[in-house]
Design a protein that fits this description.
heterodimer, A: 671 residues, mainly beta, Maltoporin, Chain A, 22-stranded antiparallel barrel, 7 helices, globular, B: alpha/beta, Rossmann fold
Chain lengths: 671, 171
């Protein structure tokens, strides 16, 4: 299959490369941003758009923001974005969500690097330490708040994080950074861009880091389930100009990491990951529009400890997609696309089975500039998933055949947006979106484990009849620029409904009763609906003397509506209790000739979360402070001192390990 | 003061603070024009001469020409190009040579002459696009706006890159 898939993609690439009426291709983000004086994104609709005109709630973290953040990892950066929640489980283990619903192995946030999924499909979450990207090679991080399945497909339900790296064709990124700090922290990273002749450019990067895991004061957490985080990763990104107006981008990556992570059953696991990927993208401008054909494969080997058993999942994802983006007349921009995806994983900890699915999808987007001030966008996508299982079953499991897994999921998603700009200062945006969170491979049956409890043995089995969670979101937003104050403000209100929320297996409720020939079994179930409403306030600006400031406040109110017979707290899905009622950020910065000084404060309302015994534990409201002081010494040398969680040596943010203060010093040489 | 009055006062204050600047910023407009030119197929790179077209009988046109020439100075870096300015009287456009594009000051219309010479014309007033006085209008306040005449571009053989076309207003 692997050979056929990429052979087919290669034929397509050759056909496109031989087109005779081609012209320009990839987006030069830097030049566009310079021209329009604001970031440019393709993550809202698939079409390049100015961030202020995108028909979606978006935040863009720029390379400059990253540089001045002092952050050494992505969750720290994302935790400073309006409306985002972060559960910090360990020195390198964290889960991120948008506007609530955060949980261990958070499944609702789809994460990509240059459009390639780095979200791990086996358990359905993002292990941030596995991302093969160095912070200094990121051009911008595009955060979409709310569903965007109509563009990205399954699992873009709570939001999307699309990490855009520097493009070797346009950007000359070269630096080496050495970072050290308390708790045994050490990191080195290297980025080097180069050109060979007029038509070939590349960027290579590599990095390694390690640190001590946070101290364990919690008697419920076994030390055997923790280990010190470490990671090594490498990436290559090449761009070849096939002719004047057609380009081929090939990206490859590898990472090897270990972290103490929180599994979805709220037990720590000393997990080890190895990932690799290869992606080819051909982009060409023809008379039929901007055509892009891409194919990629992700390989994952993840070794978890699941209820005391070693579970190794080998997950392979292959994706081929084709899209055409074109403009009709002066006012209509249209995108049509098709995608094929193959996904497979073995069963674990009890081996013997393999789950796989194929997804065929078609999608379309229509943007209509109705007037100079009013535009509308409609995007739709249809995904058809065909699930299969093969292999053997553990002894004591129900007498079902692999055919029981022959199941299709056919779901449509949409994004509709209206953007009205009555003046050059005001923007009003109304959006409606429907996203699809497909059950994970583990939910569907990749997990097979037996638990001995006293004289009893209980099995855990996946549920191939599990329904996808459908997330529908409505939002109304108003932004206003205040040029006299060099500032801008924004307010938005939103409401979101999640139907057929997934509940986890629980020993409090048997899902399949025992028979004379089979064990009692626990499984995943759809347990009802959940509704969230909220609002967000944002303001930012600059002041004389090189000062910048930013503040935001996001309030959410979540109400769970379980189906009769289910208790969300038992099923580890009590989002009304686990979602804090508010999260807020304040940031103040100053830049002088050679110095930058930045401070960040984050405030999170009280909530609750499950401890390792799956008991909801109250978490008090808390505040954290971070900062960064950097001095540029010329010739590309910069020295920075940064810190996170500076207010306390150790702080309770979850029922897991206490979050420790981190102080780092870094030396960067750019050339 | 009631809450309603306070809210009204805040709203009025915000609107006053946001009042648009009374005059266009010539430097900003020329910078946008130069950067926009780099999104042309086979667009200019390196040093490029921008002809600044003015009517000596119109003081506003002369003033704008002076402002633009002053903004460009000895050379203005605008993305992949470094612009230099060359003042051209409206009546002399037919004989203009060595220019990458024409920047047309307000109240001047050299559309026909520029089309015959296949020259791109750029103005800072969106109205000049609809009147045919320019092929492209740029402005920087309160936010960057670029308007391109599709027929005007076709008439001079100007083709912008597709991604750029999706981010501007075409008429």
């Amino acid at each position: 299959m692997k050979i056929n898939l990429f052979a087919g993609a290669s034929v397509g690439l050759c056909i496109l490369a031989s087109a005779t009426t081609v012209s320009a291709q990839s987006i030069d983000y830097g030049a566009m941003q310079q021209l329009f004086n604001e970031p440019v994104t393709t993550s809202a609709t698939g079409s390049p758009q100015r961030s202020t005109e995108a028909p979606a709630a978006m935040e863009i973290i720029s390379a400059a923001d990253i540089e001045r953040s002092g952050a050494a990892d992505l969750p720290t950066l994302l935790g400073r974005v309006a409306g985002l929640d972060v559960l910090n489980w360990g020195a390198a283990g964290a889960d991120v969500s948008v506007r609530g619903y955060d949980q261990a192995m958070s499944p609702r946030l789809l994460v990509l690097i240059n459009g390639r999924q780095v979200y791990l499909d086996h358990y359905g979450y993002t292990a941030w330490a596995t991302l093969p990207v160095q912070l200094h090679e990121i051009r911008q991080i595009e955060v979409v708040k709310g569903p965007n399945s109509a563009l990205f497909g399954f699992n873009a339900v709570g939001g999307v994080v699309n990490i855009i790296t520097f493009n070797p064709k346009f950007d000359n990124a070269r630096s080496v950074t050495v970072r050290s700090g308390a708790h045994g922290f050490g990191e080195v990273s290297l980025i080097h861009s180069f050109k060979l002749g007029e038509r070939f450019s590349a960027r290579v990067s590599a990095g390694a880091s390690q640190e001590d895991e946070w101290k364990n004061h919690n008697p419920l957490i076994s030390k055997k389930l923790l280990h010190d985080p470490a990671r090594v990763s490498a990436n290559i990104d090449t761009m070849t100009q096939l002719n004047d107006k057609t380009e081929l981008r090939i990206e490859g990556s590898w990472s090897n990491s270990q972290i103490s992570e929180m599994l979805s059953n709220n037990s720590y696991s000393p997990t080890k990951y190895v990932t690799d990927s290869i992606k080819a993208t051909l982009a060409s401008e023809t008379r039929a529009g901007l055509i892009q054909l891409s194919a990629y494969q992700n390989d994952l080997s993840a070794k978890h400890i699941v209820v005391g058993n070693s579970a190794r999942f080998d997950n392979t994802i292959r994706v081929v997609s084709l899209q055409d983006l074109f403009k009709v007349g002066a006012k209509h921009t249209i995108r049509i696309g098709a995608e094929y995806r193959h996904n497979k994983v073995n069963t674990a900890p009890i081996a013997g089975g393999e789950l796989s699915y194929d997804v065929w999808a078609i999608s379309g987007m229509w943007n209509w500039a109705i007037t100079d001030k009013l535009s509308t966008t409609v995007a739709v996508r249809q995904d058809n998933l065909d699930l299969k299982r093969r292999g053997t079953f553990p002894t004591g499991y129900p007498p079902v055949a692999n055919d029981y897994w022959n199941r299709s999921i056919k779901k449509a998603s949409y994004n509709v947006g209206v953007v009205y700009r009555p003046t050059g200062y005001d923007t009003i945006r109304a959006t409606a979106a429907r996203g699809v969170q497909v059950p994970t491979l583990v939910d569907l049956g990749a997990i097979q484990v037996k638990v001995v409890s006293g004289p009893f043995t209980i099995g855990v089995i996946g549920n191939p009849t599990l329904q996808p969670t459908i997330v529908t979101n409505y939002e109304l937003a108003y932004d206003r620029a205040l040029p006299a104050l060099n500032a801008k403000i924004g307010v938005s209100v939103f409401t979101q409904k999640s139907e057929d929320v997934k509940g986890m297996p629980t020993t409090s409720q048997l899902d399949i009763a025992p028979t004379p020939i089979s064990l009692p079994l626990l499984s995943y179930r759809n347990i009802g609906d959940s509704k969230m409403t909220g609002f967000e306030l944002k303001a930012s600006g600059t002041l004389d003397g090189g000062f910048t400031w930013r503040g935001d406040y996001t309030r959410t109110d979540v109400k769970d509506r379980p189906t009769a017979g289910f208790i969300p707290a038992q099923r580890l899905a009590a989002f009304s209790q686990t979602t804090p009622s508010y999260r807020a950020n304040l940031a103040l910065g100053w830049a002088g000739d050679h110095w930058t000084v930045d401070g960040f404060a984050r405030f999170v309302g009280k909530s609750a979360y499950y401890n390792s015994a799956s008991v909801l534990t109250p978490i008090s409201a808390y505040a954290t402070v971070g900062g960064n002081v950097a001095r540029e010494f010329g010739k590309g040398f910069t020295v920075a001192v940064s810190g996170q969680n500076l207010m306390k040596g150790a702080q309770v943010q979850t029922p897991g390990l206490e979050v420790e203060r981190r102080v780092l010093i870094s030396l960067t040489k750019a050339w | 003061m009631s809450n309603r009055n306070k809210a009204g006062l805040v709203a009025i204050t915000l609107m006053m603070l946001a009042a648009p600047a009374a005059h266009a910023d010539a430097a900003k407009d020329v910078l946008i024009a130069g950067r926009a030119l780099t999104f042309l197929e086979n667009g200019p790179s390196g040093r490029a001469v921008l002809g600044v077209v003015f009517d000596p009988s119109k003081p506003a046109s002369v003033a704008e020409k002076n402002a633009v020439m002053a903004a460009i100075g000895g050379g203005m870096n605008a993305g992949a190009v470094t612009l230099t300015g060359k003042a051209i009287e409206a009546g002399d456009v037919g004989g203009a040579s060595g220019v990458a594009a024409l920047y047309v000051t307000k109240g001047v219309n050299v559309g026909a002459a520029a089309k015959s010479k296949k020259l791109i014309t750029i103005g800072s007033d969106a109205g000049c696009v609809s009147s045919g006085a320019c092929m492209m209008a740029v402005s920087g306040d309160p936010k960057v706006e670029i308007v391109v005449s599709r027929s005007g571009a076709a008439a001079v053989g100007a083709v912008f890159k597709a991604a750029f076309r999706m981010m501007i207003r075409e008429v």
